[in-house]
Design goal:
single chain; Nucleotidyltransferase, domain 5; 4-stranded mixed β-sheet
Length: about 100
C-alpha cells in the first residue's frame, strides 16, 4: 500500500476505454472514503467532459466528508487527456494536491 508522508488521503484514478473512476482512499485504514465514476451517470463515459464531471463529483463528496488535502495518484496513466481533466476539475472544486 502507498502512504503519503503527510498522512493525507489519496485520490486514486483509474481509466478504462469506456469509463473513468476516482476514489479517495485512506491508506492507513485501507478504506475508500468517497468515490465517483462515469458509470453513475447518463451519457458517454470515455471523454474529457465526463472526466471533468467525475472530478467535480468526487471533490464535492470529499469536501462534504471533511477532506480537503489529498495526494494525487494517477497510477500508470499519463497526466494528460481524461486524467488531467479530472484533476483540474477536482482542483477547481476545492481539493488541494
Amino acid at each position: 500500500m502507498r502512504r503519503d508522508r503527510n498522512g493525507r488521503a489519496r485520490l486514486s484514478v483509474y481509466r478504462s476505454n469506456k469509463h473513468i473512476y476516482a476514489q479517495v482512499i485512506d491508506d492507513q485504514s485501507g478504506r475508500t472514503l468517497v468515490a465517483a465514476s462515469t458509470t453513475e451517470g447518463d451519457g458517454p463515459g470515455g471523454n474529457c467532459d465526463a472526466a471533468k464531471a467525475v472530478g467535480q463529483r468526487v471533490a464535492e463528496r470529499a469536501i462534504e466528508a471533511g477532506i480537503k488535502d489529498v495526494a494525487f495518484d494517477r497510477g500508470k496513466f499519463g497526466y494528460h487527456g481524461r486524467v488531467a481533466s479530472l484533476a483540474d476539475a477536482a482542483r477547481e472544486a476545492g481539493l488541494n494536491f
